[in-house]
TrEMBL record:
InterPro entries: CHP03086, DinB/YfiT-like, Maleyloyr_isom, MDMPI_metal-binding. This is Mycothiol-dependent maleylpyruvate isomerase metal-binding domain-containing protein. GO terms for molecular function: metal ion binding. Residues 9-136 form the Mycothiol-dependent maleylpyruvate isomerase metal-binding domain. The lineage of its organism: Bacteria, Bacillati, Actinomycetota, Actinomycetes, Mycobacteriales. It comes from the Bacteria. NCBIfam families: maleylpyruvate isomerase family mycothiol-dependent enzyme, TIGR03086 family metal-binding protein.
Protein backbone atom coordinates (compact mmCIF):
# COMPACT_ATOMS: atom_id res chain seq x y z
CA UNK A 1 0.00 0.00 0.00
CA UNK A 2 1.41 3.45 -0.91
CA UNK A 3 2.49 5.66 1.96
CA UNK A 4 -0.52 7.68 3.09
CA UNK A 5 0.67 9.05 6.42
CA UNK A 6 0.28 12.71 5.39
CA UNK A 7 -3.07 12.16 3.70
CA UNK A 8 -4.31 10.18 6.69
CA UNK A 9 -3.41 13.00 9.06
CA UNK A 10 -5.15 15.53 6.81
CA UNK A 11 -8.33 13.45 6.70
CA UNK A 12 -8.44 12.97 10.46
CA UNK A 13 -7.77 16.68 11.01
CA UNK A 14 -10.61 17.50 8.61
CA UNK A 15 -12.90 15.32 10.72
CA UNK A 16 -11.81 17.22 13.84
CA UNK A 17 -12.63 20.48 12.11
CA UNK A 18 -16.13 19.41 11.07
CA UNK A 19 -16.93 17.87 14.47
CA UNK A 20 -15.86 21.15 16.10
CA UNK A 21 -19.20 22.60 14.93
CA UNK A 22 -21.24 19.93 16.74
CA UNK A 23 -23.27 21.09 19.73
CA UNK A 24 -25.20 18.89 22.18
CA UNK A 25 -28.49 19.86 20.53
CA UNK A 26 -27.26 18.32 17.25
CA UNK A 27 -26.74 14.87 18.73
CA UNK A 28 -30.26 13.61 18.02
CA UNK A 29 -30.01 14.39 14.29
CA UNK A 30 -30.21 11.44 11.91
CA UNK A 31 -27.05 10.66 9.94
CA UNK A 32 -26.30 8.94 6.62
CA UNK A 33 -25.43 5.84 8.70
CA UNK A 34 -28.73 3.99 8.81
CA UNK A 35 -30.15 3.70 12.32
CA UNK A 36 -27.58 6.03 13.89
CA UNK A 37 -28.10 9.53 15.16
CA UNK A 38 -25.14 11.89 15.48
CA UNK A 39 -24.45 10.83 19.07
CA UNK A 40 -24.19 7.19 17.93
CA UNK A 41 -21.88 8.12 15.07
CA UNK A 42 -19.55 10.29 17.17
CA UNK A 43 -19.40 7.65 19.90
CA UNK A 44 -18.42 5.07 17.28
CA UNK A 45 -15.83 7.39 15.73
CA UNK A 46 -14.34 8.18 19.14
CA UNK A 47 -14.19 4.53 20.16
CA UNK A 48 -12.57 3.53 16.88
CA UNK A 49 -9.84 6.12 17.37
CA UNK A 50 -9.13 4.65 20.80
CA UNK A 51 -9.19 1.11 19.42
CA UNK A 52 -6.74 1.87 16.62
CA UNK A 53 -4.50 3.77 19.03
CA UNK A 54 -4.51 0.72 21.32
CA UNK A 55 -3.69 -1.52 18.36
CA UNK A 56 -0.77 0.72 17.45
CA UNK A 57 0.57 0.22 20.98
CA UNK A 58 0.14 -3.55 20.77
CA UNK A 59 -3.14 -3.78 22.69
CA UNK A 60 -5.65 -4.20 19.89
CA UNK A 61 -6.48 -7.81 20.70
CA UNK A 62 -8.24 -6.70 23.89
CA UNK A 63 -11.88 -6.29 22.87
CA UNK A 64 -12.43 -3.76 25.64
CA UNK A 65 -10.19 -1.37 23.70
CA UNK A 66 -12.90 -1.13 21.03
CA UNK A 67 -16.00 -0.70 23.20
CA UNK A 68 -18.22 2.31 22.55
CA UNK A 69 -19.94 2.42 25.94
CA UNK A 70 -17.15 4.22 27.84
CA UNK A 71 -17.44 7.23 25.54
CA UNK A 72 -21.19 7.77 25.22
CA UNK A 73 -21.55 10.07 28.23
CA UNK A 74 -18.44 12.09 27.35
CA UNK A 75 -19.66 12.59 23.77
CA UNK A 76 -23.05 13.72 25.07
CA UNK A 77 -21.45 16.25 27.41
CA UNK A 78 -18.73 17.59 25.09
CA UNK A 79 -18.94 16.13 21.58
CA UNK A 80 -16.26 18.29 19.97
CA UNK A 81 -13.75 18.09 22.80
CA UNK A 82 -14.16 14.36 23.38
CA UNK A 83 -13.80 13.62 19.70
CA UNK A 84 -10.78 15.86 19.20
CA UNK A 85 -8.93 14.25 22.12
CA UNK A 86 -9.49 10.78 20.66
CA UNK A 87 -8.45 11.89 17.18
CA UNK A 88 -5.23 13.46 18.44
CA UNK A 89 -4.49 10.28 20.42
CA UNK A 90 -4.71 8.08 17.33
CA UNK A 91 -2.64 10.50 15.27
CA UNK A 92 0.07 10.39 17.93
CA UNK A 93 -0.06 6.60 17.99
CA UNK A 94 0.24 6.36 14.20
CA UNK A 95 3.23 8.72 14.25
CA UNK A 96 5.41 6.25 16.18
CA UNK A 97 8.60 4.98 14.53
CA UNK A 98 8.19 1.64 12.75
CA UNK A 99 4.42 1.79 12.81
CA UNK A 100 4.04 0.84 9.13
CA UNK A 101 5.46 -2.63 9.75
CA UNK A 102 4.11 -3.14 13.28
CA UNK A 103 1.41 -5.84 13.69
CA UNK A 104 -2.04 -4.45 14.45
CA UNK A 105 -4.55 -6.79 16.04
CA UNK A 106 -8.01 -5.93 14.67
CA UNK A 107 -10.49 -8.29 16.37
CA UNK A 108 -13.47 -6.61 14.75
CA UNK A 109 -12.37 -8.28 11.51
CA UNK A 110 -12.34 -11.69 13.21
CA UNK A 111 -10.59 -13.58 16.00
CA UNK A 112 -6.82 -13.42 15.70
CA UNK A 113 -6.82 -11.04 12.74
CA UNK A 114 -3.64 -8.99 12.54
CA UNK A 115 -2.42 -6.74 9.73
CA UNK A 116 0.63 -4.54 9.18
CA UNK A 117 0.33 -0.98 10.44
CA UNK A 118 0.31 0.43 6.91
CA UNK A 119 -2.78 -1.66 6.10
CA UNK A 120 -4.46 -0.67 9.36
CA UNK A 121 -3.80 2.97 8.58
CA UNK A 122 -5.48 2.47 5.20
CA UNK A 123 -8.60 1.07 6.88
CA UNK A 124 -8.67 3.95 9.35
CA UNK A 125 -8.00 6.50 6.61
CA UNK A 126 -10.99 5.38 4.54
CA UNK A 127 -13.25 5.40 7.58
CA UNK A 128 -12.45 8.99 8.45
CA UNK A 129 -12.64 10.32 4.90
CA UNK A 130 -16.19 8.95 4.89
CA UNK A 131 -17.16 9.64 8.50
CA UNK A 132 -16.04 13.24 8.17
CA UNK A 133 -18.48 13.55 5.30
CA UNK A 134 -21.16 11.77 7.37
CA UNK A 135 -20.89 14.43 10.08
CA UNK A 136 -20.85 17.29 7.58
CA UNK A 137 -23.87 15.87 5.75
CA UNK A 138 -25.72 15.56 9.05
CA UNK A 139 -24.99 19.20 9.87
CA UNK A 140 -25.68 20.29 6.28
CA UNK A 141 -22.26 21.94 6.15
CA UNK A 142 -19.70 21.85 3.31
CA UNK A 143 -17.03 19.15 3.35
CA UNK A 144 -13.94 19.30 1.22
CA UNK A 145 -10.70 17.36 1.23
CA UNK A 146 -7.55 18.13 -0.80
CA UNK A 147 -7.29 16.34 -4.14
CA UNK A 148 -4.26 14.31 -3.00
CA UNK A 149 -6.24 12.95 -0.03
CA UNK A 150 -9.12 11.84 -2.24
CA UNK A 151 -6.75 10.44 -4.85
CA UNK A 152 -5.04 8.36 -2.16
CA UNK A 153 -8.32 7.14 -0.67
CA UNK A 154 -10.10 6.20 -3.89
CA UNK A 155 -8.04 3.13 -4.88
CA UNK A 156 -8.24 1.78 -1.32
CA UNK A 157 -12.01 2.27 -1.31
CA UNK A 158 -12.42 0.54 -4.65
CA UNK A 159 -10.84 -2.64 -3.22
CA UNK A 160 -13.67 -2.91 -0.67
CA UNK A 161 -15.87 -5.74 -1.98
CA UNK A 162 -19.57 -5.32 -2.60
CA UNK A 163 -22.22 -8.00 -2.26
CA UNK A 164 -24.93 -9.52 -0.12
CA UNK A 165 -22.80 -9.36 3.02
CA UNK A 166 -23.32 -5.59 3.00
CA UNK A 167 -27.01 -6.22 3.76
CA UNK A 168 -26.12 -7.57 7.21
CA UNK A 169 -26.94 -5.42 10.24
CA UNK A 170 -23.28 -5.33 11.30
CA UNK A 171 -21.91 -4.40 7.88
CA UNK A 172 -19.94 -1.14 8.00
CA UNK A 173 -21.16 -0.17 4.52
CA UNK A 174 -24.41 -0.41 2.61
CA UNK A 175 -24.50 -1.78 -0.92
CA UNK A 176 -22.59 0.26 -3.47
CA UNK A 177 -24.63 2.76 -5.47
CA UNK A 178 -24.32 3.23 -9.22
CA UNK A 179 -21.72 5.76 -10.28
CA UNK A 180 -22.65 8.87 -12.22
CA UNK A 181 -20.59 10.17 -15.15
CA UNK A 182 -20.25 13.52 -13.37
CA UNK A 183 -18.97 12.07 -10.07
CA UNK A 184 -15.77 13.49 -8.66
CA UNK A 185 -13.45 11.40 -6.49
CA UNK A 186 -15.36 12.10 -3.28
CA UNK A 187 -18.68 11.14 -4.87
CA UNK A 188 -17.14 7.93 -6.25
CA UNK A 189 -15.83 7.06 -2.78
CA UNK A 190 -19.20 7.72 -1.19
CA UNK A 191 -21.22 5.79 -3.75
CA UNK A 192 -18.94 2.75 -3.60
CA UNK A 193 -19.42 2.68 0.17
CA UNK A 194 -23.20 2.98 -0.07
CA UNK A 195 -23.55 6.71 0.60
CA UNK A 196 -25.59 9.08 -1.52
CA UNK A 197 -23.50 12.20 -2.23
CA UNK A 198 -26.75 14.18 -2.54
CA UNK A 199 -27.77 13.28 1.04
CA UNK A 200 -27.25 16.83 2.27
Amino acid sequence: MPMIRDQHRTAVQASIDVVAAVRPEHLTLDTPCAGWNLADLLTHMTAQHHGFAAAARGGGADLSAWRTEPFADAVAADPAGTYAAAAHAVLAAFAADGIDEAPFALPEFGPGVSVPGSTAMGFHFVDYVVHGWDVAATLRTPYTLPPDVLAAALPIVMTVPDGEFRDADNSPFARALSLDDTDDDLARILRHLGRNPEYC
